[in-house]
Structure formats: structure tokens, C-alpha cells
Amino acid sequence: MPVNRSTFLRRGIAVVAALPLLTLAACGYGSDSKDTNSNEKVAAGSKKIDGLSSVKIGYFGNLTHATALVGREQGLFQKELGATKADYATFNAGPSEIEALNSGSIDIGWIGPSPAINGYVKSNGKSLKIIGGSASGGVKLVVNPKKIKSLKDVKGKKIATPQLGNTQDVAFLNWAADQGWKVDAQSGKGDVTVVRTDNKITPDAYKSGSIDGAWVPEPTASKLVAEGGKVLLDEASLWPDKKFVITNIIVRAGFLKDHPKAVEAVLKASVEANKWINANPDEAKAAANKQLEADSGKALPANVLDPAWKSIQFTNDPLASTLNTEAEHAVKAGLLEKPNLKGIYDLSILNKVLKADGESSVDAAGLGTS
Question: How far apart are CA 258 and CA 265, in angstroms?
């Protein structure tokens, strides 16, 4: 499969965007979730929004995407969409979700900052917009305490990240550089070895001893702790106010232009979901786990779910300044040419929803459409 190289991206980012797509091509852009939730039923007398028969929503089976998990499990998206059906697809990797967005297989998605940046830059700002925030935090460096007892001991060890050029990979490379260590971003070799490993198999890699630790999102971090790992560093401690974007809401640019009422309905449901999550953390945690089980066939055990949930903050604020910083980290690592992110955000509909709900508006940190 030929790689479509953007003038803005180096070969490494183009490759990381292509490889997961080769892996996932046989099974489509994601796993279509089954309609197992009675809360998803269309209310009698409801009307379609913008004349649409459906709105296609994508998300990952991660707790950092709990706004989407809870919004679905509680029937909030369907409630706001009326007779327009909420359809869902779940994903394992950002590049496959961006591909699905570009092809029209989904309209709106929950996704991490690095794939959103890459998708925006590769399309010269034409493919997508970030329309809201969802979550902050939930990323940790977990290590084998028998091999690594302090941060300086990480040098010379094998540390897993989910994927070359993904959000956690960039964060770890940046942190390693701040320690004065040299690592080749493409090969992962250097003063510390970066082992790109799918989150699903990272716990097994840890148990086998093939890695000494991992810089990963929840719930993978807490799964490693359950296997005897120790949290050496919470990434939130590296950020001002301990906040940084881990999950955004993106929309296909054409869909935003043609169907703003449908976008508004989804954002209303997202804001409502975050409000309910923050007011009812225990119930929300259970709801997110219930949807994870419906999607994957397996719920998280309490010793993984509870600590993972505590480390994530759910917010409508996209924390735009931290996305810009994450882009700078990717440039510093040599994975990204300096991008022009002006216009990546369109927060106008979100701020309309927040105002109607009596909440404060959020800011695009100079990267908005106006």
C-alpha cells in the first residue's frame, strides 16, 4: 500500500498512519457495536434532525473515552438525536478512526490529540475540526519495581508505548529527552528502548518480562499495576494544573457544515454525560464498565476499574493550549514538521450549548476558526 506523504509530516508519521490501516483493513474501520442497550430506543413521536436517518459515532474501548461510553449506555445521544438513529463503531487505533472519518464511515468521534493533529495536518486543515473536549489525564508510567526503583533507573530499560507517533509515544519521547537521554524516534533505540506495543498485549508483554515498563493510558496502566507493576510517574504531574488533553471530540468538516443541528445534539449529550459523570462518579463508573462489557464481552475487574477511574478528569474544555504543546513535543521528537494548527478548533456550537446550560465558555487558545 503506497504511503501518502504530506508535505507537513515526516516519513515516520506517514508510516504510523498507514501500518494500523493495513492491519485493520480486513475487518473494516472498527467494530460496529451491537444495539444491546434498552436506553437507546427512539422515543415515540421523535423527529429526525436535519433529515438524517442516522449519525455515526466512533470511540475507543478505553476509560479515557468514558464520555462516549456513558453517553451511549445512558441513552443520551439517542435522546438528543430524536428519530435520527445513533449508530456506533469502536476503534483500537487513532489512524483507523481518522480513515473512517475521512471516508464517511463515521461522522463524529472521540479521539486522542495526536491522531487529530495528524489528520488535520495531512488534509491541510480540510478534513476535520475539534469541536469539544472530553477527558484529561489517565496516563501513567508503570514499571517493574524489581528492575526500576527510581526515574533515573529507566535509562537502559525497555519501555512500551502504544504506537509509533501516538499521544503516549510522543509524551514518553519528550520526557526522555528532558532527562538528557537520546532516543531515535523511528527505531525506538537509544539510551532507553521504546517498544511499540498494542495496549491489548502490553500486560502480557510485561508478565513475560519482554518489557520493563510502559507509558500507557487507562485502563492499561492499572492492568499493569494489578500484575505487580508500580506507578513511577503520573503524566498529569508534568502539566500546569495537572491537566492535559487525552480525549477530544472531532467531526468531519463537511458534516459540520451540512448538519450543525446534529452536531449540536451530540454535543448536548456529551455535556450532559460529563455533568452526570462528575455528579455521580460511582454510577458513571459502573455505566462505563457496562458499556465496555457490551462492546468487548468483558468488564474490567474492580482492582483495575477503580484506580483507573480516579486518575481521569472529565471536562468539556478541550484544553487547547495543551494540544498545541503536544504538537510541539512531536516536532521536538522529529516526528512532525512544525504544523499550522490555526483553525483546528470550532468551539462555536459547544459554547452555545454551554451557555444554554449556564456553564462557562471554553477557549481555543488562538487555534479557533475565528
Answer: 14
C-alpha of 57 from chain center: 14
Tens-of-pLDDT digits for all 370 residues of the chain?
Answer: 333 333 333 434 333 333 333 333 323 345 554 544 556 777 667 799 999 999 999 999 889 999 999 999 999 999 999 999 999 999 988 889 999 999 999 999 999 999 999 999 999 999 999 999 999 999 999 999 999 999 999 999 999 999 898 899 999 999 999 999 999 999 999 999 999 999 999 999 999 999 999 999 999 999 999 999 999 999 999 999 999 999 999 999 999 999 999 999 999 999 999 999 999 999 999 999 999 999 999 999 999 999 999 999 999 999 999 999 999 999 999 998 999 999 999 999 999 999 999 999 999 999 998 5
Cell of 279: 455528579
| 329 vs 335: CA distance, rounded Å | 9
| 60: nearest Cα among 172, 169, 157, 135 | 135
Would you say how long the chain is, in residues? Answer: 370
| 134-167: b (≥16 Cβ within 10 Å) or e | bbbbbbbbbbbeeebeeeeebeebbbbbbbbbbb
Question: Please, is 296 exposed, middle or buried when counting C-beta atoms within 10 Å of its C-beta (0-12, 13-18, 19+)?
Answer: middle
What's the pTM value of the predicted model, to 2 decimals?
0.87
> Which residues are 196's β-sheet partners?
161
Contacts for 51 with CB less than 8 Å, ≥ 6 apart: none
